[in-house]
């Protein structure tokens, strides 16, 4: 799990990619991701600064978030598009900024098709998507031809705006992908029916784009290599399309994995590293142009290894460049241990974008806030004590020390990390260790005075200029008769291994921690890629259409009940883009989820409940309490009374379970202003 600490040249990663008419300086592609800044009303200034930071950080090629080639293709009302010269001129700021910083950038052209969230969406057939409330209008032959011209127009406008190329979004279930598969294309004309007819649309788009931009312009085609839906493309069809796209004029083929409506995780933290790269390697010998591999690649070590093994010619990373804009430069200079590694949590990026907020990053709140959250060296260094080394304490100490303050960190346990040390024990969240590694490196680099096994007291803290209380939370104990029974354990003792539980377990509380404990009790840590494929029914070898097969789910070692008082959907407040994964994962292990529970009492027989006005006895071995948390900030008032300047951050300010996003964001903002 830990990044290597020796200097490494990563030779494969930093070889230029020669396309004949241009060179890409290394093999790192910052993959497309919609940030919400594309629709920023004042203009594209914030987006330009976001890309500037990544270009300065040394990435070979940036691909923007998706811009629609026409109104019907927008993701939502007033979503980003590039359709006229006025919009083109706004984009010139982006391209000028990136080029000034020494980078290259391509614009992604994305037509949402039936995935759009507005009543004017169109598709090859009138089949409603499960992720949009609107039924699409069926495209006429005329509209199809006009849409092809709109793709070409968009590419030409991008070229005039100064972009180095375009990426044509042909995967993830968007319009082009909807034409390709029988699942969404039920036409019987020349644009449907046979596979040859169904792929005519993407081929004509690439041909038209190439004709519009000439030969000396990068065209990347994002090809769905694994649809992960029924009636998706077979592997033979994927190869046929790839060869046709090459012939039509694309310079590079990028890997797309999974439709957005597929009920299979493809980028979440529970997906093993590089889990889908085999399909890219499988395609590479079939075509003559470079291929890009993607999904869950987040360290230079892994990226370099994939290149050396012949898996691909380039590596696409999207969220890792949110986490650390200097990713490429740090790797190139042999300081890979200083990379702030993406942990694929989605909490501050995709979860925010899906509720129409600007993206950021849990491990790097400065992402997409480059114009607002600025760290400057202090001209008045202060001595600052930090109490607690959980997410908030580590984040504050690292940034404040980098700015030049003298930081002393007190941690009562024998290790850094706080709640990170709980999170990393949950199956699928092992990569939270990366955050501990990163902050540990930063604290030592900027000479933070660390005191482990030290309980902070008023006497220890009173002489500092300022004190930051980041002491975290303590579990809340619900008022249930018999709560002191020997069957009852708290979640911290279970996760840390201080207490073991039997073969039948009830979990009181179905928030984020309740779900995490259920995962902990039913799943293995550090699951192999094959275990992941088996549980989710993924065919990585091209034997089954759409890349899906019958799941093979290993039974849980325990019978688990997940309980909540509220009579509402389980996990209602889990992440917008990951909650469904957690619910399905527990369903796979036959976890029994019961809502609307009244807790009556606990005795030797077990847990006595009332559900739907009927008594229910769960004769179980153990009961795990996951009933929320309360703030742990006992030092705040005594220090205030002494006239000390004191700040509360993270769980000590507001208990928010294992959600580190708020804690780190609050801590970084305080560190930037102190």
Give the overall shape, derived from the CA principal axes: globular
Structural class from helices and strands?
alpha/beta
Number of strands: 27
| Low-pLDDT regions | 2-7
Helix proportion: 25-40%
What is the residue-averaged pLDDT? 95
Tell me the number of helical segments per DSSP (H or I, 4 or more residues long): 22
Radius of gyration: 26 Å
How can the largest sheet be summarized? 8 strands, parallel, barrel
End-to-end separation in angstroms reads 34 Å
- The largest sheet has its strands arranged as 3-4-5-8-9-10-11-12
Strand content: 15-25%
Report on this model:
With 674 residues, this protein is α/β, with parallel strands linked by helices. Helix content is 30%, strand content 17%. It is built from 22 helices and 27 strands. The strands form seven sheets. It has an eight-stranded parallel beta barrel with strand order 3-4-5-8-9-10-11-12, surrounded by seven helices. Strands 15-14-13-16-27 form a five-stranded parallel β-sheet. Helix 1 (45-56) packs parallel to helix 2. The two termini are 34 Å apart.
Chain-wise SSE layout:
Layout: E1 17-18, E2 23-24, E3 28-30, H1 45-56, E4 61-67, H2 85-100, E5 105-109, E6 122-123, E7 137-138, H3 141-160, E8 165-170, H4 175-180, H5 195-198, H6 200-213, E9 218-226, H7 235-248, E10 252-257, H8 277-283, E11 291-293, H9 300-308, E12 314-317, H10 319-323, H11 327-332, H12 350-353, E13 383-387, H13 391-403, E14 406-410, H14 420-423, H15 433-445, E15 449-451, H16 458-461, E16 466-469, E17 473-475, E18 488-490, H17 491-495, E19 504-508, H18 512-522, H19 529-536, E20 559-563, H20 579-588, E21 592-594, E22 597-603, E23 606-611, E24 614-618, E25 622-625, E26 629-631, H21 636-641, E27 645-648, H22 661-673
Parallel strand pairs: 3-4, 3-12, 4-5, 5-8, 6-7, 8-9, 9-10, 10-11, 11-12, 13-14, 13-16, 14-15, 16-27, 18-25, 19-20, 19-25, 20-21
Antiparallel strand pairs: 1-2, 17-26, 22-23, 23-24
